[in-house]
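User: quick one, fold this
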Amino acid sequence: MNPPSDLSRRQIRTASGLSFMVLLGSFIFILGIHPGFFGLDRSPVVGFVQMGVWLTGLAVVLLGAYGAARIVRNGRKHSLRSEIGVRLVATGYVVALAASLADFLGIGSHPLPRVYFGPIQVAGLMTGVVLSLTGLILYLPRGRRKPTTPETKLNP
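Assistant:
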């Protein structure tokens, strides 16, 4: 598939770099969610550092995806759909952050010494991720840009 003709080479390179940022963030997110997959699981419980790693990875994914989508928009006017999308991305991240750190923030069901990442927190994290991804989909432009015709000047 050829890139859209209305993007410059610089925009395509930047979007490619941001796509790499999404892949790097995905790696960091997976590292935080399942460190045993990489042989780094040192504790049977989920701790603050592990949560920080997956939340950092999710933030990198969302920032890279938002930046690439912004480049793909290429100056198109924002519709209500795209404005809702941007807000859903941010809201989804806040939901994931609050669900992940519920016990540390004091809104979870377990006191601080005995932190437990339970099924409700997993559901909150996944809800936040799904909300953010839905927002990114809504932010993307619909269809191709219509070609503009040059304005013709009328001679008096």
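User: anything notable?
Assistant: Helices lie at 9-33, 48-73, 80-100, 102-105, 119-139.
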